[in-house]
Amino acid sequence: MDGLSQRLSTLGGVITPYRIDILQGNVVVREQVEALQPGMSRQQVQAILGTPLVASIFHADRWDYVFTYQRQGQPVQRRVVTVWFEGDRMVRVQTDGELPTEREFVASLQVRRPSGEAPPLQASDEQLQAAQAAGPKAPAADAPAANPATPPAAASYPPLEAR
Fold this sequence. Notes:
Largest sheet: 4 strands, antiparallel
GO molecular function: protein-macromolecule adaptor activity
Region (Disordered): 112-163
Order of helices and strands: HEHHEEEHH
Number of helices: 5
CATH architecture of the domain at 21-102: 2-Layer Sandwich
Structural class: alpha+beta
Helix content: 10-25%
Distance between the termini: 62 Å
Protein name: Outer membrane protein assembly factor BamE
Strand content: 15-25%
CATH class of the domain at 21-102: Alpha Beta
Subcellular location: Cell outer membrane
Family: Belongs to the BamE family.
CATH topology of the domain at 21-102: Beta-lactamase Inhibitory Protein, Chain:B, domain 1
Number of strands: 4
């Protein structure tokens, strides 16, 4: 998104619309991959990593675990772990980069809100005096004066309960 449309969509950068975090696929952390050993059965691999996101009949000897995490204001995280089999036994595992530990992954999920002072919820004396000095707005000359003490003219309302 270019700079102008980004500023317009966020009201000049002051207010940003809320966007939910999008988590897709299998979260695979370093400890899980380290637990895998060549020669493990498909069931053992699935018990450690979970059901693969991609298990194609055209590539029956390969399982792909794909994970993406998208959070507003942060780059998209994408990781791929591929497990190869010969028959029913695992032969190797490949990752697309350094996997985080479980602790590192959980820490990355923590919402980091900017810390700062909360705005005052009470008007200062100067603000009150300025508001009083401005006074109430006079009604327009052609507007009818409303008297809050008189009820509206013969309004008919349905009963609140059935009779």
